[in-house]
């Protein structure tokens, strides 16, 4: 297992290198640069001086190599737009909010989606099944930001649920929870739909397997058959879609954080793109990519844990 | 030998979009303690449905066991049992093994645990005792390294080994009846013989009655005490193994016997096969269901279903050829007898 993870890690570094390079050149292909954006009213000579100071007047290939060198030291550089803040610091301050929303959305989406799928499968062709399938179709066809606006209109401001915003530093976790309700729902709605749909199909597939008949013929209770034999086997395909779903959540946060004005990394990302803040764009892209690659690795490891037929390393004969 | 199981007028239908498929149409039979009854017939004749009905494993809907049917186990009607009684019966009193060992075991559960499940429910063992017993069961069905094997998963076993595991699961609680639904169909011939020998040996040791479902008369010859031939959801002939092999009376039984490959068959001879297909059970024929494929078919056969005629205490045939007015017909040459 250790050897496998090491091998995957080396692939990861290669993947990240490609991502960094592609992002770097694409970003530079965008019109303007951080200086022209921020210092529009400065005379061109001063802009030129600033460019020289930040090394932006050097040829692009040279800057690329410089950036890679800097990365090797674990340093993402400084923000051009918010002076005095390094990208590392931005990630450090903005990550907790994003992580909170993201993890919550992954867990809630998985739990509710899988449970709905199981209900739909065991109660197939009943009203419960039709309702779940309706939610599923709705969830995959309506984009997250539409759901977000709908939630704000319908639920926002009602009771204790705020339309947008984030907990202040003095508030506790429990007090802050109310701010996360709407963004979490908006973020995981699509996942719920996907999981429910997959789980229903998967359960129906397993129910018709011969080994379920074997289990029934043993005389064990219906619940034991459902839990140990049906659900245990039906959950395996769900692990497969967990990876892409995590990606959906990560990209979802970028839009959702903006809508609910959550001080997270997604929000910073949009601000950085709008102001051509090169280092922040690159830093956050790398961070998001890393998150995704690592979660894919975790999914693969999980896969080998839930399905004994799959082993990540070649077995010794 | 006491009567253990009695099936009376079993009728099973499936409700499909096309209509009601009458898969089993009034099957009655008995099973005595310690005996082996073989139910023989081609695909779709209702033999599997009959066997699954005994454990009420027919999914409903679309399956539907008719009200007039009775399946008495020790004089108690299985079809009227409640959930709990049924669970105690399944695996405890009556066990079942299925056709395809490759798909009949749960792929994500260790072999030992799959055997233990049975023991925990029916013999009140705790997990540790059950796993210990599972090892003994694996040894009993001839799996080497049982101690190690209990902790393995089905994909680490070959087809024949898996069928042995299935037998271990089925026999774990020492049931009175073992229903084996085509237990050797998915296995190659040498493994088939091993599995049949194993079942015979275990029956001698444990005294389990076996209902053996198969389409292969060759498999039946060495193990069955009695044979019942089914066609289109009905029993057309029944008798002891000797009667069926040495003195068959029904043209369908003849045809089945003729289709068994024999040692003396020449290499270039084409193996006999019954022409045509079984009738559509959406609209079962009024007369004898075999009429359209029968070489000896008479006018009456298409109009009426023949009543069973007793040949001996044990042999019974439903065919108009046995009517006193019917022409005398000799069975084809070279069928049956010793295989």
Walk me through the structure.
The complex is a heterodimer of chains A (317) and B (339). With 317 residues, chain A is mainly α. Chain A has helices spanning 2-29, 34-38, 44-54, 60-72, 87-122, 127-141, 144-154, 173-207, 210-217, 222-234, 236-259, 265-274, 278-306. Chain B folds into two domains: 3-224, Rossmann fold; 251-322, no CATH class. In chain B, the strands form two sheets. Chain B has an eight-stranded mixed β-sheet with strand order 7-8-9-3-10-11-13-12, with helices on both faces. In chain B, strands 1, 2, 4, 5 and 6 form a five-stranded antiparallel β-sheet that branches. The model of chain B has no long low-confidence stretch (mean pLDDT 87). Chains A and B meet through helix 9 and helix 10 of A and helix 2, helix 3 and helix 6 of B. Chain B: Keywords: ATP-binding, Cell membrane, Membrane, Nucleotide-binding, Transport. Chain B: It is a peripheral membrane protein.
């Amino acid at each position: 297992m250790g050897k496998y993870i090491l091998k995957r890690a080396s692939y990861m570094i290669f993947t990240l290198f490609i991502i960094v390079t592609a992002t770097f050149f694409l970003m530079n292909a965008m019109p303007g640069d951080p200086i022209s954006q921020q210092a529009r009213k400065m005379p061109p000579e001063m802009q030129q001086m600033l460019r020289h100071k930040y090394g932006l007047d050097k040829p692009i290939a040279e800057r690329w190599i410089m950036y890679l060198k800097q990365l090797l030291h674990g340093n993402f550089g400084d923000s051009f737009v918010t002076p005095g803040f390094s990208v590392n610091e931005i990630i450090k301050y903005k990550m907790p909010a994003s992580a909170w929303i993201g993890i919550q959305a992954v867990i809630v989406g998985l739990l509710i989606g899988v449970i709905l799928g199981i209900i739909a499968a065991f109660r197939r062709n009943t009203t419960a099944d039709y309702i779940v399938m309706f939610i599923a179709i709705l969830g995959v066809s309506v984009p997250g930001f539409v759901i977000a606006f709908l939630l704000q209109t319908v639920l926002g401001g009602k009771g204790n649920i705020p339309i947008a915003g984030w907990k202040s530093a003095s508030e506790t976790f429990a007090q802050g929870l109310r701010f996360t309700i709407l963004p979490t729902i908006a973020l995981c709605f699509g996942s719920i739909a996907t999981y429910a749909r997959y789980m229903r199909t998967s359960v129906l597939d397993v129910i018709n397997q011969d080994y379920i008949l074997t289990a029934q013929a043993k005389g064990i209770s219906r619940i034991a058959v459902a839990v140990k034999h049906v659900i245990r086997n039906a959950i395996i395909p769900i692990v497969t879609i967990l990876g892409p779903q995590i990606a959906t959540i990560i990209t979802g946060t970028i839009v959702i954080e903006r809508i609910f004005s959550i001080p997270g990394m997604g929000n910073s990302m949009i601000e950085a793109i709008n102001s051509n803040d090169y280092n922040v764009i690159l830093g956050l892209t790398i961070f998001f990519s890393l998150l995704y690659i690592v979660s894919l690795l975790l999914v693969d490891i999980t896969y080998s844990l839930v399905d004994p037929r799959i082993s990540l390393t070649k077995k010794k004969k | 030998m006491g009567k253990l199981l009695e099936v009376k007028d079993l009728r099973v239908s499936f409700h499909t979009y096309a209509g009601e498929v009458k898969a089993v149409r009034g099957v009655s039979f008995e099973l005595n303690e310690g005996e082996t009854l073989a139910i023989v017939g081609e695909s779709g004749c209702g033999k599997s449905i009959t066997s699954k009905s005994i454990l009420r494993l027919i999914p409903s809907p679309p399956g539907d066991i008719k009200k007039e049917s009775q399946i008495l186990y020790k004089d108690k009607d299985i079809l009227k049992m409640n959930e709990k009684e049924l669970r105690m019966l399944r695996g405890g009193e009556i066990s079942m093994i299925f056709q395809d060992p490759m798909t009949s075991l749960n792929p994500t559960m260790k072999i030992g645990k799959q055997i233990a499940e049975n023991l925990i429910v029916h013999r009140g063992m705790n997990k540790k005792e059950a796993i210990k017993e599972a090892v003994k069961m694996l040894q009993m069905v001839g799996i080497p390294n049982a101690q190690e094997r209990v902790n393995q998963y089905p994909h680490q076993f070959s087809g024949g080994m898996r069928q042995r595991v299935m037998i271990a699961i089925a026999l774990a609680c020492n049931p009175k009846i073992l229903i084996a639904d085509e237990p050797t169909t998915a296995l190659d011939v040498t493994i088939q013989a091993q599995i049949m020998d194993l079942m015979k040996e275990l029956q001698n040791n444990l005294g389990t009655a076996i209902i053996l479902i198969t389409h292969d008369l060759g498999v039946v010859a060495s193990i069955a005490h009695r044979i019942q031939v089914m066609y289109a959801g009905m029993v057309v002939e029944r008798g002891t193994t000797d009667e069926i092999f040495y003195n068959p009376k029904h043209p369908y039984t003849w045809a089945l016997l003729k289709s068994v490959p024999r040692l003396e068959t020449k290499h270039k001879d084409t193996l006999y096969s019954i022409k045509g297909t079984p009738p559509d059970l959406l609209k079962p024929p009024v007369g004898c269901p075999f009429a359209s494929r029968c070489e000896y078919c008479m006018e009456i056969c298409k109009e009426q279903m023949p009543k069973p005629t007793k040949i001996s205490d044990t042999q019974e045939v439903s065919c108009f050829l046995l009517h006193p007015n019917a022409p005398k017909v000799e069975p084809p040459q070279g069928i049956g007898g010793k295989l």
